[in-house]
């Protein structure tokens, strides 16, 4: 079975399981609150939804 990996997902193992999120700089995102994640390198903020995370404008 194959499945799509959501954008910015950090996955490990076979079968793959998500262990976190990464930003555009490749650094692991840290949680700011329940649905917002922040890149410690760039300060960019991402919102988590059912399809993954997306960059906030």
Largest sheet: 4 strands, antiparallel
Average pLDDT confidence is 94
Distance between the termini: 35 Å
Taken together, the total number of domains comes to 1
Tell me the radius of gyration.
Answer: 11 Å
The gross shape turns out to be: globular
What low-confidence regions span 5 or more consecutive residues with pLDDT below 50?
none
Strand order of the largest sheet: 3-4-5-6
Number of helices: 0
Order of helices and strands: EEEEEE
**Strand pairing plus helix content: what structural class?**
mainly beta
Give the fraction of residues assigned to helices. Answer: under 10%
Strand fraction equals: 35-45%
Count of strand segments: 6
Summarize the structure in short:
With 57 residues, the protein is mainly beta. Helices cover 0% and strands 40% of the residues.
Write a concise keyword list for the protein shown above.
two-stranded antiparallel sheet, 6 strands, four-stranded antiparallel β-sheet, mainly beta, 57 residues
Question: Could you please describe the fold and organization of this structure?
Answer:
This protein has 57 residues and is mainly beta. The protein has one domain (9-55). It contains no helices and 6 strands. It has strands spanning 9-12, 17-21, 30-31, 36-38, 45-49, 52-55. The strands form 2 sheets. It has a 4-stranded antiparallel β-sheet with strand order 3-4-5-6, with no helix packed on it. A hairpin with a 6-residue loop joins β4 and β5 (45-49). The radius of gyration is 11 Å and the shape is globular.
Write the layout of secondary structure elements.
Elements: E1 9-12, E2 17-21, E3 30-31, E4 36-38, E5 45-49, E6 52-55
Antiparallel strand pairs: 1-2, 3-4, 4-5, 5-6
């Amino acid at each position: 079975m194959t499945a799509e990996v959501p954008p910015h997902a950090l996955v490990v193992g076979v079968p793959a399981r998500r262990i976190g999120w990464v930003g555009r700089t490749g650094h692991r995102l840290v949680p700011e609150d329940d649905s917002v994640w922040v890149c410690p390198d760039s300060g960019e903020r991402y919102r988590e939804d059912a399809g993954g995370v997306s960059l906030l404008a």
